[in-house]
ATP-dependent DNA helicase RecG
Amino acid sequence: MSINLQTPIDYLKGVGPNRADLLRTELGIHTYQDLINLFPNRYIDRTQFYKINQLQRHSAEVQIIGQITALREVAQKRGKRLVATFRDESGIMELVWFRGQKWIRESLKLNTDYVIFGKINWFNGLFSMPHPDLELAEDHKKSLRSSMQPIYPSTEKLSNKGITNKVISSVMQNLFLETKGEFVETLSDNVLKTQRLISKSDALLNIHFPKNSELLSKAEFRLKFEELFYIQLQLILKNLIHKSKIKGFVFEKVGDYFNTFFNDHLPFELTNAQKRVLKEIRHDFGSNAQMNRLLQGDVGSGKTIVAFMSMLIGLDNGFQCCLMAPTEILSVQHYNGLLELCNKLNISIEILTGSTKTSKRKEIHENLENGQLQLLIGTHALLEDKVKFKNLGLAIIDEQHRFGVAQRSKLWKKNTSPPHILVMTATPIPRTLAMSVYGDLDISIIDELPAGRQPIKTVHRYDNNRLKVFRFIRDEITKGRQVYVVYPLIQESEKMDYKDLMDGYESISRDFPTPEYQISIVHGKMKPEDKDYEMQRFVKGETNIMVATTVIEVGVNVPNASVMVIESAERFGLSQLHQLRGRVGRGSEQSYCILMTSHKLGENSKTRLQTMVNSSDGFEIAEVDLKLRGPGDIMGTQQSGVLNLKIANIVKDKAILQHARYCAQQLLKKDPSLSHSENRVILNTYRQLSKYINIWNYIS
Ligand code: ADP
Ligand code: MG
C-alpha cells in the first residue's frame, strides 16, 4: 500500500504546524503531492571542494570542509553580528551572521568538521562567507544529497523564518523515505516506450536528488513532457468535445451575395493565403459544428476582406452577421469601408457604438430583432443585453487581443445556439504559444502580404536629429504623402504624456505652419465625434500630418500615408511598435518608419529597436517579444494561468511542446474517449489533473 499523496503536509516528518503554515501560505504547498511537485529552480555542483588558500576574490559559490574554532559578537551600527573563525589546514576565513544569531550560537559545535557552502566576500584582508549553508561533515556524508544540489524556489519570509533550502531538501528527503520513493506512474507504458521516457519514480528521484547530470536531464525531459502533454490533451479534448456537442448553424450554400461580390466587385485578386483561409472557414461552416476560429495575420495582410466574404456566406444562408472592433475609429472605418460594397449588393448595414444617438439606437435594435438589418458593425456596444438579433449566425471580433475572454463568450449568447465565431488578430503570437493558449480554437494564418507591397524602411534616430527628420517629412509631404507622428500614452503617467503630446504638437505646428500645412490631432481625451472629425480629415487627405497617441494603433487604413514617426519609441513594446508601423506601407509608395529615442537606452530597449530595424515579419518579432517579456506578460494576466507551468517553459521547451502536442493528437486519434485499457493510466491522471488545474476556465 503506497502512501496517500493527498496527506496534508503537516504530517510529514520535520514539518510541524508552523512550518506547514508557512509552506502553505508562501509556496502553496498543502499536501505531499504539492511538495513533490516543488521542482528546483536550478542545481549547483557540489562535487568540488575548495581549500581556503585556493579562494579567489571572484569565486562565486564555494564549498569547503573545515572547523569553527572561535565565535564572537561584533557590534555594528544597528545591533551586532555573529562572526565565526573558520579554518582548514590551508588557512583561515570568517563566517558571518546578521540574523538568527541566537539559534546559530546555540547549535554550532566548535572544533568539529563542517561542510560549508555559499558566496564569499573579501573583507578586511580575509575571506568571509555570510550566512553559509552549513552541515556537519558526518551528516553530509550520510545524506541522500548528491553532487548536483537542488536549489528550490523560496521567499524572503521563508528564509527569515529559518526554512532554508537545506530544510526543504531535508523534508523532501523525509518524504522520499516515507514513500520509499515509489510513486504511481502517470503515463502509459506505450507513451513511455515510444517517447523513451524514464519512469515517474525515477524522474522524481532524479529531479530532487540527481545522481548525475545525465539522469537529471532525463528526469527534466520526462516531467516537462508530461506537463505539456496533459495540457495539450486537455485542450485538444476540449476542442473535440466542443465540436461534437455544440451544434453550429450549417451554412449550406454559397449564394448570390458571395458570388456577385466575388465575380463583379472584388477589388483585387485574393492572395493564396486569403483563399486558403476562406476555404478553412467554409469548411467549418459546412460541418455542422460551431466554428471557433482564430485568424492570425500580420498588419496589412488583408483580414478584413476575409471577414467580409465570410459574412456574405452567412447572409446567403439567411443569417445576420456582426463585426466587433475595439475602438470607435476602427468601427467607423470598417463601416465606411463596407458601406459602399453593401450598397452595391443591396445589403442592409448599420454601425452601433457608444456615440450612436438614442433614436438611431432604437431603430437599430428594432431592425435587428425583426431581421431587417443584416449586418451590424460596432464596438463593445454590440455586447449590451439590449442588442438582440433575430438570427445571428456569425460574429467576428477584430483585434481580439483588445477584448477580454468574457466578451468573447457574451457573443456566444446572442442566439439560441451559439453563432460561429471568428476572432482576428494582428498581434501574431508564435505558433507554440498559440497552441498552448488557444489550443481550444482552430487556427488560421494569413502568412502572405498582398502583392506589390514594398517593405517599409525602418530607421532609428536620436532626438537631436529631429531637424533632419522634419526636413525628410517636408520632402514627403511635398511629394503628396501624409505623415503620422505618434506619442506614447501610458496610463500611469497620463498627465505627463498628454503634456508631451501637446508640446510635440506645438513644435510641429511651428515647423509646419498653416496654411501651407494642415495638421490633425487625435488623442484619448477627445470626444468621439471630434476624434472622428479629425480622423476623417486625415483620411480624406485634407491634413498632411496626424499627431496622435496610440489610439490609432489598431487597424486604421490610410494608404496615402507613407511616414510613421514614433516618438519616445523606447517606451513602446515590440508588438505595439510593429502595429504602429503597419499603419504605413499600405499603398504602392515606398514607406518609412522612424523610431525616435533619447540617447539613454537600456539593453532591452536596444534589442527592441534593433529588431524593428531588422525585421518586418510579425511572427519573428513576436518570437523576440516572447523572449524579452516572457509568456505571461504577452497574454496579459488573464491568461497567464495557463502558462504558469511547474517545470516546462514555453519559450525554451518549444520542441518538447510540439512533440507533446503531436503525441496527444495521435493518441486521441486512435482513442478519442481514452477508453482503451492501455490508456487507463492516462485517463486516470487526466481526471485527477482536471480537478486541480482547470485550464478551461482561463480560455473558454
Ligand atoms: P489587416 O489584415 O491589417 O486588417 P486590411 O484588411 O485592413 O489588413 O487590408 C490592408 C489593405 O490591403 C487594405 O487596403 C485592403 O484593401 C488591401 N488588400 C487586402 N487584400 C488584398 C489583396 N489580396 N490584394 C491587394 N490589396 C489587398
Ligand atoms: Mg484590420
The longest helix spans residues 213-245. The pocket of magnesium ion (ligand 2) is lined by residues 303-304, 398, 426, 555 (CB under 6 Å). The chain is about 45% helix and 20% strand. The chain has a mean pLDDT of 87.
